[in-house]
Prior knowledge:
By secondary structure, the protein is an alpha/beta fold. It has helices at 5-12, 16-27, 39-52, 58-65, 89-101, 138-147, 172-182, 201-214, 237-254, 290-293, 366-378, 395-398, 403-420, 455-488, and strands spanning 75-82, 116-123, 154-158, 185-190, 230-235, 259-262, 265-268, 274-278, 356-361, 383-388, 429-433, 442-445. The chain folds into 2 domains: 5-54, no CATH class; 63-455, 3-Layer(aba) Sandwich (Rossmann fold). It is built from 14 helices and 12 strands. The strands form 2 sheets. Strands 1-2-4-3-5-8-9-10-11-12 form a 10-stranded mixed beta sheet, sandwiched between helices. A two-stranded antiparallel sheet has the order 6-7. Helix 10 (290-293) links the parallel strand 8 and strand 9 (356-361). The longest helix has 34 residues, at 455-488. 47% of the residues are buried. Residues 463-489 are annotated as: Disordered.
Amino acid sequence: MGASPSALIRLLLPRIPLILKTALLNILSLSENSSRQDARTEITVALIRSITQVRKPMRFLQRVSTRDPGIKGPVLVSKDTIPAPIDHTIRDALDTAIRELGDGSETYTLPEIVAVETEWITYKAGVPANEPRADVTERGHYQTIMENISSPTTILYFHGGAYFLMDPATHRTTTSRLAKLTGGRCYSVRYRLAPQHPFPSQLLDAFIAYLSLLSPPQGMHHEPVSTRHIVFAGDSAGGNLAIALMLLLLTLKRKGIQSINFHGAEVSIELPGGVAINSPWVDIGLALPSLQRNAHFDYLDPPSAVGLSKTEPLPDDLWPTSPPRAEIFCNASMMMHPLASPLAAPPKLWEGMPPIFMCLGNESLEDEITLMARKMHQGGGIVDFAGFEGMPHCFAMVFPASPMARDCFERWAKFCSNTTQGERRKSSRACWAKAFSNPPEHEDVELDQISQISDEEAFKFMKKRQEQSMNREQEAVTKWQEQQSRAKL
Ligand SMILES: *[C@@H]1O[C@H](CO)[C@@H](O)[C@H](O)[C@H]1NC(C)=O
Ligand SMILES: *[C@@H]1O[C@H](CO)[C@@H](O)[C@H](O)[C@H]1NC(C)=O
Ligand SMILES: *[C@@H]1O[C@H](CO)[C@@H](O)[C@H](O)[C@H]1NC(C)=O
Ligand SMILES: *[C@@H]1O[C@H](CO)[C@@H](O)[C@H](O)[C@H]1NC(C)=O
Ligand SMILES: CC(=O)N[C@H]1CO[C@H](CO)[C@@H](O)[C@@H]1O
């Protein structure tokens, strides 16, 4: 992705021994994971892990991970900006929902209301990969997109990146593939990133993006989109945001808030046609056992026994924050709030939700995702769950051409098409694809039996992690206060 050959060589050369060792152990079936991963998968996972383990400052990580690779070939993009709503009702509504779902102990700051940038994306078949982008206005690009779509499916997409990395520009391969497979278009949101903008800035931006689809402010390219044609989608942290936005809407409806003033229009609060997410991160504390149990399949590093990340960014002017907090995304007191960690929501909060699709690997986040699926199902939601044995986090984006990824993308896209075109599922279903099967062979599983862990056990794991984070945060704040008062002397 835009890497120059010399940068690639500098990255790979020192890692040749690792590549050889991983390949040899896998081929000789000596590694713990060769029963479920082929050599290529194992080498890639080991390489990503080795590269991400080198700690770098926050500002550096954000700069390299948000770099725009440029637009060319069959990917059609049109940029637009949602002007900042002047009216505060949207933020007040968000605050109402946060208070409604919390227990009053959470500390957070209501963010500033800002303009939100977005990208429309679709895929135009038959265009050479290197064809330069047409030299027309953004509105012209939008018209081309509208001339080249064949379905009303509109995917409101939230990119992943642990809430502090990446950008719609880095996810165009994914969004254009979803657009290609559905014949529709994606609306990809440049939400604000932590740590500069902690929770709930992302949720406010996501809410504004959804309202802008329903009721476009003057000057934007698009016409109003009907809620039944919209699917919320995302990967990893973007999956978290898609679920949080859905829960926000459910909560506002439950509170009797029927409409929101948005740029002078009263926009009625309706749920989208569906939600479709890939490897969603639903427990901010990363507290469940699969973080350790599946670590050997994954490039995500498990947190230490007390919840510390081994890949914690090196200190710079952005991180740690002043005052310091335990998590890049939020204060420790916020970690078990359902809008930050949707896994903390009791099943009844999912009543009335639209159908949801979830796919995942045999990954570090396996437990939190399976438990999330079970809870939604038990709360009355219709869940379409697809697991892939031996695969790491977001594997469909890491190995886009593999048979597992192809199958995963087809299911993901098919769900988006179905749910926005009147083919809504009537019941839940779940399956796991067997390792090495090609084409993937799926074994059906009962959603009620998808995990060995009970909701009570999960709650205890999460609570324990939150307590560790609270203690760590308290120590850091005390130290910071001492430094502040010393600096004043
Ligand atoms: C965390 O809590 C402190 C007060 O305890 C508050 O000053 C700060 O704004 C909070 N930070 C975030 C990100 O919510
Ligand atoms: C797609 O876009 C091109 C411009 O890039 C336009 O000429 C064409 O008519 C559009 N429609 C279809 C169906 O290709
Ligand atoms: C995922 O991998 C672990 C081994 O790390 C295994 O115990 C677990 O059953 C796997 N899950 C599935 C669904 O295969
Ligand atoms: C989509 O709808 C078709 C036709 O009803 C059905 O066969 C298929 O299983 C559905 N796929 C998904 C992913 O819901
Ligand atoms: C890529 C990867 O995680 N490989 C692991 C496979 O299993 C061995 C243990 O046998 C680990 O050391 C590797 O890290």
